[in-house]
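User: Can you write out an input/output pair for a complex, sequences first and structure second?

Assistant: Here is one pair. Inputs:
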Amino acid sequence: MNPTVIKTIRATARSWTGVLSLALLLVIAAAALAAPVLGLPDPADMAFDLYQPPGAAHWLGTDNFGRDIFARVVWGARVALIVAIGAALLSILIGSALGAVAGYFGGWVDGLLSRVFDIFLLIPTFFLILLIVALFGASLPLTIVAIALTTWPRSARLMRSQVLTLKSRVYVQAALAAGAPHWWVILRHVIPNGIAPIVTDGTILMGMAILTEAGLSFLGLGDQNMVSWGSMIFEGQRHLRLAPWMSIAPGVALLVLVASLNLLGDSVNFAMNPQLRTRGGAPKRRRGVAPPADEPAATAGAPILQVTDLRLEYAAGDRRIAAVDGVSFSLPRGGSLGIVGESGCGKSSLGSALLQTMPNNAELTGGTIRYDGRAIVLDGKPVIEGGRSRIEALRWTRMATIFQSAMNALNPVTTVRRQMVDTLRLHRPGMTRDEATARIGEVFDMIGIPRSRMNAYPHQLSGGMRQRAMIALSLILEPELVIADEPTTALDMLIQDQILGEIADLRERLNLSLILVSHDMGAVAESCETVAVMYAGRIVEIAPTRRIFDRPAHPYSRTLISALPSLTGPLETLDSLPATGSAAAEGGCRFAHACPAATALCRSTPPPAVQLGGNHVAECHYAEEFAAEPVDAAEPTATEEACA
Amino acid sequence: MSQPILQLDSLRMVYADDTGLVSRLLGRADPPVIAADDVTLALRPGETLAVVGESGSGKTTAGRIATLQERPTAGRVLYEGRDVTGLTGAALKAYRAKVQMIFQNPYDALNPRLTVGQSLAEPLTLHGLVPRAGLRAAVLEMLEAVELRPAETFADAFPSELSGGQLQRIAIARALIIKPRVVIADEPVSMLDVSIRSGVMNLMRGIQRDTGVTYLYITHDLAVARYMADRIAVMYLGAVLEEGPAETLISAAGHPYTRLLIRAAPEHRATAVKRDRIRLPGDAASQTGQPTGCRFHPRCPLAQPVCRETAPPRVALGEKHAASCHFATEVRQNGLAAATAAAV
């Protein structure tokens, strides 16, 4: 079976609403299916014991003709389910086909079909059905068709909006480029991927269909030859005083069936949208700790930032994922550290941990961060002093950040100037508007934005200008340390180069300390004095920049460096990690599964942090052998030695 | 010299925004976006031509037109000398069997509801190239060719179970399984991690060695272009500014823009000299409202009055090397800094 379906069913079954509604539906469906073989009294069988209250002979009593109500409720479930399934299926079939065509082809086809959807949505269901019954007489199939005819635009509109996004998906484009005709693309690639929310909505449709049929039967417009809950309630209400059970029993059955269908729809929707689960929730209150009593006063020589054994975990469902797994480093005042690594290595999580701006499902589980010698995080807990956490006092005024996406980081509905004035006045309450504007002008000059752009909204700025505005915003309070997370990734080459240049200039002029988080080895090489390479949540190698590029001691760093094509250097075949590899092994070195030089030792024992002198540390059993040879040597001899 | 297999001839692509009645009445209609202004490129059989440019340079549009996913506003696409610009129906399908595409985003390249094997078999089924019974074998052979082993396991896997590098290899396999003559690859490695990237590039080079397929390789990264391509064309604001053999273009570029791109690329090699950055006067290119004269003059450190007024000619700089700049010869000989100093 399709993995998505299995996953969805599993996730649905995990919530109690899902389990409850599924169980109820199964019981009702089983009873309805098995009605003829359950040995119930004939639901149409009239007897002389009229108006019997519920009891041992008749569990739910009898009605005005002496018919057994329990039997009638069970048989009524058949009608309800036939109507529900029939109408929902028909409605989804028509709706998703027309919706897919409208969304896929767009233009006048979409315009025309969308008007048709609107017209059908305007037709009152009951009016149409009255018309049909008047013309063709009452029968169950006609009821189903009538309900489907008034509900299909729901599915059509849903499918249309699904297709509008699906048709720009790469695999749809790829199928077209491969030469697939449109009908093939719609049936094979578009509808199967867009149907999920429509099926979810189908459970709601089923509930609606049941209620409509019950309403029709209540009005006496249902199929008179079949037992329907609606007609039972209708008959019951005339005998409400004498025999209330006559209408209560089918009424409760109706309620339970429709409620469990809606509940199921909700749980399936919830199960299919993991975002509803993980992203929701209020920010966790993190318990703080008091500063240590024996904390020494800040000294002139203290590093501006010192991180020891920092650990950060994400909660994903029931699992916990360690994104930062014991990271230590220290940054001298005025220094610059580049943190490089590939997607998922934890570099951005580390950046957010330093400022304590992690997402709500992330948590520090250990480690210490010291700023200027004073602890801001102890054992993973924020340090509170005088009722305020120390990081809050430092954030933005002394430690600022430059985000990757300026478009998302700047507020789109206020001007750049306004956002900067707000920031300034929040942190410097005494400042007047004019003083604030003057300060913004200074920063704009420094970063190369014309002052005339001050009153622009973020969307009116080009990508490069927007990123500059983001940098200006982070510098406005004259911080000492800037943490830049991929500050130039979204930008074009020439602009990236300029912005990196501007950051370098600013560092020199303002004596800024910088942490640059990036996947781009080149950008880091040119902007930072020290480089840390992260892999699977740990810094596997850290060294002065020239040293790490000339004599990398960790096989992973070596791969990263020799995998980059050079623009002006010699043209040589690039190394790469194998396309297929085993999963990371428990214990041992975390790079062993992909390492070209891994040995049995690597797979069994975690490597120590090998000190190579000159502030060069690498977590590899063979670090010394690797460091001894420059990166351009053809084959790593360490492998041979280790294997020998 | 062999005849080009695929030619783009003076392509122009303009997206006119479908403006509403009110803004049209108020005269506030957005100006049309000129995605391609004048793109002329020729691909020779078996070579790799890299098209390099920033976002908005029109490189992706050129690729989409080459595969006829979009039809140009003006200009022609020629395949083996025949005009294919207006092809439809069976003729279009036959063209697509010859000219395939690899997309940028591997994570979205495969239908999540189909197994890898089903996705790979699809082009074969569509073009009726392999009988139903032989599909599985053809799929496994292709998976071997893109180094995904064991092929059986990969054929039965769903995309969600695979890594980015593996997905892009499968996307490459899907493009190549019907043995096209030309593959248009639009930034095929830019979304992959560095350590995986080089593997995919090496794979593409190996396949070209084995099959003689022709690549049009679209990228923003000159270093990647140099690694992959025999020739490089540099695009800016919808036009080709410079074109030439890869090594020549990088060592002796004739267009200031190419020179700036080369200088802007960060370099980590020990041999690299620390570059000095120059501040460019203008900002990133805008696809609406093209400048008069040379399209690069607002950002060009070398710009002279003539650049603002007259569109530069295409200056031949050597065998197969040409640049559209009034000062191309000077820039090529003396470099950008010297040419700028001499001009001022």
